[in-house]
Amino acid sequence: MKKTAVAPSNIAFIKYWGKKDEVLRLPENGNISMNLSGLETTTTVEFITSYKEDSIEINGIVESNEKNRAIDHLDRVRAIARIQDKAKVVTKNNFPTGTGLSSSASGFAALTVAASKAAGLTLSEKELSILARQGSGSACRSIPSGITEWLDGETSDTSFAVSLYPPEYWDLCDVVAIVSVGRKDISSTSGHKLTATSPFFEMRRFHMKEKISLCKTFLADKNFPAFGELIEAEALELHAIMLTSTPSLIYWTPGTLRIMKLCKVWRNEGIPVYFTINTGQDIHLICEKPTVELLKKKLAEIEEVKNIIVNTSAPGAHLIDHHLF
Ligand code: PMV
């Protein structure tokens, strides 16, 4: 059976950084994100009895690192479905891979939905989220729809994401400024392992529950200024932990920093916009829909900005009928 799924990437408002369990990918803290309408992975999977090994093509090429992680994920699906067949997998992103736009989130969410269905399984949203999490933590948040929360469970069965609000709930937008197309030097997988080496990590652990609860209150109230201040401070805290890890992780480039500073200038001019950044140089500008056009104009004037991708809140991973092979 050949099956194809599309999954969105997501942007975390409250971040997942560090793991309580390395193998199961249980996060140090619960976290909250929004699925992104303009950053998608499409994946087709077919299990083929005559295949001697898995064949995995990502954006037209076979990448050995990703390939191993993808095969590990296929093994998880095969174990649940009790099948041995090898698979053909073809996957495509409509955005640059490995630059901090969470291609692993959309990638593993799409692989989970397509592979499980192709293996003959019918899994619930919760089961899909648990499975996706084991491929890449943030992928579990790309399974449910809209704004999602990855619950702070202590076991694999209690660590999954749920939808807090559907896409149409609030016209929040994420205007991504691509400031470099190069791949980041250090993957999130390696970065997570360094979290505990930062002297600020204990402080972060201490107040995460409160942050989650504040974020949920501001979302419920659609209180954009309070929400924006909180998520920008959260991004800076994440990067404070990264900068003070051993070895230190520095993801920003001059373009990233320029836009971070401009964001404050724009706010002083009365433009309601806040930034957030993941493990990469690209910067996500969070605003409400009426601000998007003005922001695009401002970004287009900045030399370092190579591309601008406007996202609204999107549905979670789902099957489609159009196959890639
Ligand atoms: O899911 P991973 O291993 O790619 O880690 C994601 C880490 C951050 O993007 C920095 C934060 C997050 O919650 O998405």
Would you summarize the structure shown here?
The protein has 325 residues and is an alpha+beta fold. The protein contains 8 helices and 13 strands.
Task: Describe, in plain words, how this protein is organized in 3D.
With 325 residues, the protein is of the alpha+beta class. The chain has two domains: 2-167 and 314-320, Ribosomal Protein S5, domain 2, CATH 3.30.230; 172-312, GHMP kinase, C-terminal domain (Alpha-Beta Plaits), CATH 3.30.70. Helices cover 35% and strands 25% of the residues. It contains eight helices and 13 strands. The strands form three sheets. Strands 1, 4, 5, 6, 7, 8 and 13 form a seven-stranded mixed β-sheet that branches. Strands 10-11-9-12 form a four-stranded antiparallel β-sheet. Strands 2-3 form a two-stranded antiparallel sheet. Strand 5 (55-58), helix 1 and strand 6 (86-93) form a beta-alpha-beta unit. Helix 1 runs parallel beside helix 2, helix 2 (103-118) packs across helix 3 and helix 5 (201-221) runs antiparallel to helix 6. The longest helix has 21 residues, at 201-221. The radius of gyration is 19 Å and the shape is globular.
List keywords for this structure.
single chain, 325 residues, alpha+beta, Ribosomal Protein S5, domain 2, Alpha-Beta Plaits, 2 domains, 7-stranded mixed beta sheet, 4-stranded antiparallel beta sheet, 35% helix, globular, binds (3R)-3-hydroxy-3-methyl-5-(phosphonooxy)pentanoic acid
